[in-house]
Design goal:
about 675 residues, alpha/beta, FAD/NAD(P)-binding domain, globular, binds adenosine-5'-diphosphate, binds iron/sulfur cluster
């Protein structure tokens, strides 16, 4: 154990239970919820094995009137749920960690699309995104809610959880009650702050009664309230002081969810610190909070300077489930640091199981038997062409497996697209994808790197490696083809650029149109880079808003705000139809109505073309199979997000020479006798 960090490994009493150390995996979504209990148990167990002293579930519905479909939520509705949750708690306990469960009622926010039960609200209000309003809760409903919560707490105890949460934030039912503007009740649950907090107080007291002295009671609470209209800072602080002793642990968040789980593009590490510090002084109880911390020094500072008692993490524990063990064992340079891209969160929002740019094994612990720290041994020689995220990940895995690895890249330095993209505005942290892997393979005597080496098919054949992995990436298309245009559009030979040109340092000046048919970060980021260089930028997108897909990564609002603040004109639901070097032609995606605009340059952010020529030449007409000597990985196989390139490389590298350890398991209900 590295004695500098001993304080992070001191046990801490939380009510009736004792956390073995200060590493606390706060409740976080996994895209699995109640539907994938085996998958989830293996994921949570891996965190506990990696040294997290407390491992919590995601939001866990107490009753069918709180159903967040299609977003994957956990549930503790009945004995079946108890059995599945017990498997999770048991898996966590096996590694000496405590298991926490976040009891949750969604209130008006949810639409109950699966259960079709009426949603319940402090008053009747529209749900988050469906044309469905909640039922105003009468006294009988409040009584029933309390019964459900009590029963859920008992079930949580029966499933052997150690920490049971009450959850009055993030816009769900209990926050509705706390809100001055939403809570219009005239009874003892509305009006004064004391009345608005009555339900929370009762649930805290009743949860304690329900779990007895077996479990700790935690509360997830916003340190700075929910905004002036709902629960202002003073009111939040009054409640922290008044209710402080009713919980054994305060899990502090902040009112702005998009800041709380902000991406590295917009929110720095440790952004909650001052607000959490002020709140902790009021509770008189242990406090946990998050900050996307990956450095042990930053974690230690949080403890030492009295910000928190336990260092909370969701994303850093996803990017590296073994982060605590690595600190304990003095292997700090092995930590796979979260890059703050929010791809993990995005896939929950898409109803899919979690994935991570940095950690390809997350979510695959049960399905594919992947362990983040262990790979099967292997033998032989491998030549990897391309040292982008895919090539680097493959080199790292194959190096760990014992192969003789040669990694070549045309560029003089490694990183491929992450090196290029991390130079764009806001994306600096993405270089961690490169740096972690370069650091790891730098220590492997069996991995040789050849940067500044453009390889052709003849050289690769002459190299005579047992296996060849082609990881040559993809290039942005220069012809307008993408989602909207299935064929190239009419374009001038000059003054038409791609993101690759901008990443190469080209900065078109004057009136520059950026056509975004990709809808993620690249279009807005290119627009911002050009605006920063002095261009007058018109951003044209076929979507309804700027960087539309980044709503899934909780970045869309900040993206559009940053663009507007940078003076970028945003034209939505519009496609670029052509550009002759002077005049830009656009068409409305609904009416087809066209318009002409004066422009000096056009940047096309539409789609990418795999750079697979080398692969095609080497693989010949035979195509690829697991047995082929030549395989393609990453963007050269399928242009996608960086997480997909890393995953594709990991899968091929892990299975090279041995095939899959077993077929990927499917978790589903089977009709049986
Ligand atoms: P991925 O995301 O799949 O890793 P990247 O585009 O980030 O893809 O990386 C591809 C890398 O391959 C780039 O660094 C590029 O320089 C390199 N590359 C492409 N063609 C060759 C080649 N013929 N020889 C060596 N390196 C190449
Ligand atoms: Fe961090 Fe991105 Fe991984 Fe999420 S997906 S844990 S934000 S690196």
């Amino acid at each position: 154990m590295d004695s500098r960090f001993a304080a992070l490994f001191e046990p801490l009493r939380i009510g009736p239970v004792i956390a073995p150390n200060r590493f606390y995996q706060v409740p976080h979504c996994t895209g699995m919820g109640h539907a994938l209990p085996h998958t989830l148990a293996a994921l949570r167990a891996t965190k506990a094995e990696g040294g997290w002293g407390v491992v919590c579930t995601e939001y866990c519905s107490i009753h069918p009137s709180s159903d967040d479909h299609p977003y994957p939520f956990a549930s503790v509705w009945d004995d079946g749920d108890v059995a599945n949750l017990a498997a999770i708690a048991e898996a966590v306990h096996r590694h000496g960690a405590l298991a926490g469960i976040e009891l949750w009622h969604g209130g008006s926010y949810v639409a109950n699309l699966a259960t079709r039960a009426p949603s319940l609200g402090v008053r009747s209000m529209p749900s988050r995104e469906d044309p469905i309003q909640s039922q105003r809760m009468d006294r009988a409903d409040i009584r029933r809610l309390k019964d459900w919560h009590r029963a859920a707490a008992r079930r949580a105890r029966a499933a052997d959880f150690d920490i049971v949460y009450v959850y009055p934030t993030h816009g769900y039912l209990l926050s509705e009650f706390l809100s001055r503007s939403l809570n219009d009740r005239r009874d003892e649950y509305g009006g004064s702050l004391e009345n608005r907090a009555r339900l929370l107080r009762e649930l805290l007291e009743e949860t304690r009664d329900a779990v007895g002295d077996r479990c700790a009671v935690a509360v997830r609470f916003s340190a700075d309230g929910h905004g002036e209209a709902h629960l202002n800072l003073e009111e939040a602080q009054t409640l922290l002081a008044a209710l402080g002793p009713l919980a054994d642990l305060w899990d502090l968040v902040i009112g702005d969810y998009e800041e709380e789980m902000g991406s590295s593009r917009f929110v720095a590490e440790g952004a909650l610190e001052s607000r959490v510090r002020a709140a902790r002084a009021l509770t008189g109880r242990p406090v946990v909070s998050v900050g996307r911390f990956t450095s042990p020094d930053a974690m230690l500072h949080q403890l030492r300077s009295g910000v928190v008692d336990l260092v909370g993490a969701a994303r850093p524990s996803i990017a590296d489930p073994f982060l605590p063990c690595k600190i304990r064992d003095g292997r700090i340079d092995e930590i796979r640091e979260c890059i703050g891209c929010n791809v993990c969160y995005a896939h929950d929002a898409r109803g899919a199981a979690i994935r991570c740019t940095q950690n390809p094994t997350i979510g695959e612990e049960w399905r594919r038997g992947w362990h983040p720290e262990r790979v099967p041994p292997g033998r032989g020689s491998v030549l990897i062409v391309g040292a982008g995220p895919a090539g680097l990940e493959a080199a790292q895995v194959l190096g760990r497996r014992g192969f003789e690895v040669s990694l070549a890249d045309r560029d003089g330095s490694p990183g491929g697209r992450v090196s290029r993209e991390s130079r764009l505005p806001g994306l600096a942290a993405w270089a961690r994808v490169r740096d972690h892997r370069v650091g790891q393979i730098g220590r492997m005597a069996n991995v040789a790197t050849y940067y500044g080496s453009a390889l052709d098919a003849a050289t690769i054949r002459d190299f005579a490696a047992d296996h060849v992995l082609i990881a040559t990436g993809a290039r942005w298309r220069r012809d307008g083809t993408g989602r909207w245009h299935s064929r190239p559009i009419e374009l001038a030979a000059q003054r038409v650029y791609t993101p690759d040109d901008v990443m190469d340092g080209v900065r078109p000046a004057g009136r520059v149109a950026v056509f975004d048919d990709d809808h993620y970060y690249m279009g807005p980021v290119i627009a911002l880079a050009l605006a920063a260089a002095g261009a007058s930028v018109h951003y044209v997108t076929t979507a309804g808003r700027a960087g539309d897909w980044s709503s899934h990564t909780a970045e869309q609002r900040r993206t559009q705000r940053a663009m507007l603040e940078a003076g970028i004109e945003i034209l939505v639901s519009t496609a670029v139809a052509g550009f002759d070097g002077q005049t830009l032609r656009t068409e409305c995606v609904f009416t087809g109505r066209d318009a002409a605009w004066g422009a000096d340059a056009l940047v096309l952010v539409t789609s990418r073309e795999p750079s697979d020529g080398l692969y095609a030449e080497l693989a010949g007409s035979g195509g690829e199979s697991q047995e082929s000597r030549v395989l393609r990985i990453g963007d050269c196989r399928q242009p996608s997000i960086i997480a997909a390139a890393v995953y594709s490389a990991h899968a091929v590298a892990r299975e090279l020479g041995v095939g899959a350890e077993r077929p990927a398991a499917r978790e589903r209900v089977l009709i049986g006798p």
